[in-house]
Design brief:
This protein is mainly alpha-helical. Helices cover 46% and strands 8% of the residues. It has a three-stranded parallel β-sheet, sandwiched between helices. Helix 3 (91-103) crosses helix 4. The protein is globular and about 60 Å long. The termini are far apart.
Length: 192
């Protein structure tokens, strides 16, 4: 790529925020990938090589399908076990995000950035293999809002506290999400 004075390096991470990911080692690994893309962007800029970090949503990989005991043909059966699975995406979706970036003649302007499959789907207009445009970035906060505004008491079995805490980590420190972070903190305080 350096010799050709062109190229695209895509690091795949988890989450399109710099917020804490709930576990020191997991957080370190996923943020290191984001930082790696940022540093490569700086080092490779002179060679017109673009480096970015890209986050898929809840991935419906072969391992995840196996975990739920389903296949790609009947994956919707797993939604009963995990309602978040409704917005899961195939590996092709993030692959289409990479292809869209690679085909963009102005991708160099994005170097060093952190992107999501759902954000790039909106920008470039691609869909998942079933024709749907997955949007984990809207789906997950909406599900968290339903928990916080709901009336059922949280329990560890239904993972409500984990899900709210995860979202709180995502938005903590983001000035644009200060109100949401305060609501999430209050919810977590009430349900200690």
């Amino acid at each position: 790529m350096v010799e050709r004075n062109a190229g695209l390096v895509v690091e795949v991470t988890d989450g399109d925020t710099l917020g804490y990911r709930g576990n020191l080692f997991y957080d370190l690994a996923k943020n290191a990938v984001i930082r790696l893309a940022y540093a490569m962007a700086a080092d490779l800029h002179a060679h017109r090589v673009t480096a970015v970090a890209l986050a898929p949503g809840l991935m419906r990989s072969e391992a995840v399908l196996d975990h739920f005991g389903v296949t790609e043909a009947n994956w919707r059966d797993a939604i009963e076990k995990d309602p978040y699975f409704a917005e899961s995406e195939t590996p092709c979706y993030v692959g289409r995000a990479v292809a869209a970036l690679a085909a963009d003649p102005d991708v160099g302007a994005e170097t060093g950035g952190l992107f999501s499959s759902w954000g790039l789907a909106k920008e470039y207009g691609f869909t998942d293999v079933d024709g749907r445009r997955r949007d984990w970035g809207s789906f997950f906060p909406r599900k968290v809002r339903e928990i916080v505004e709901g009336y059922r008491p949280p329990s560890e079995e239904n993972m409500d506290l984990f899900v709210v805490r995860t979202r709180q980590y995502q938005v903590e420190g983001d000035p644009a999400a200060a109100d949401e972070a305060a609501r999430l903190r209050a919810y977590l305080e009430r349900h200690r």
